[in-house]
Amino acid sequence: MIGIDTFAFYFFAALSVFASLRVITARNPVHAALFLVLAFFSMAGIWMLLEAEFLAITLVLVYVGAVMVLFLFVVMMLDINLEELKEGFWRWFPIGAVLAAFMVFEMVWVLGSRQTAETGAHLAKHAADYSNTKELGRLIYTDYVYPFELAAVILLVAIVAAIALTLRHRRTSKKQDPSEQVQVQRKDRVRLISMPASKKAADVVQADQVKS
């Protein structure tokens, strides 16, 4: 008899494969993005079965809650020509099939090895008060602190490079200088002018006085 954990694993795995296939076969880009959201949710379920609650919550909050919302906005705002997207599909299909087969071979080779099988067979269930987030934080800031800092530096360099590549100084473009805005005074922006009252304005004031 199949246990609830095994049934949940196969259910989320089948849902992930189905959603992944629909991402690349859906004709509508919005539908493809929504199927990608479904794939993220199903993978989060698998992470929960592996007692990796922090990774599951991060996958939902970061990728589904932020990245995919941005993707949907971009897809809906852009005028995408679907015919041009379909033109290169069959041309690059053999290369994609070879890469997919190579990835499947790697996964089968790793998961089917003796070391992986023995490690998976001796996985122990943790207690109810076990905190996956606490253990992950302890490992990151103790045993893997240098790779973590290196990854942070690489991401920072990538952000600076992306900003530098997209920054364009054009003569016709308008930009603001915060330092000049802070130093602005009232006399630089507002000028009070004393203007003599015109005859028409004086007549209007006199008529108002007569009415009152």
| Structural shape | elongated
Number of helical segments with 4 or more residues: 11
Secondary-structure-based class equals mainly alpha
Query: What is the mean predicted local confidence, pLDDT?
Result: 80
Number of extended strands = 0
The percentage helix is over 70%
Radius of gyration using CA atoms only: 31 Å
Low-confidence stretches: none
Report the β-strand fraction as a percent range: under 5%
Order of helices and strands: HHHHHHHHHHH
The rounded distance between the terminal residues' Cα atoms is 98 Å
Q: How many strands, what sense, and barrel or not for the largest sheet?
A: none
Explain what the structure shows.
By secondary structure, the chain is mainly alpha-helical. Helices cover 75% and strands 0% of the residues. The chain contains eleven helices and no strands. The model has no long low-confidence stretch (mean pLDDT 80).
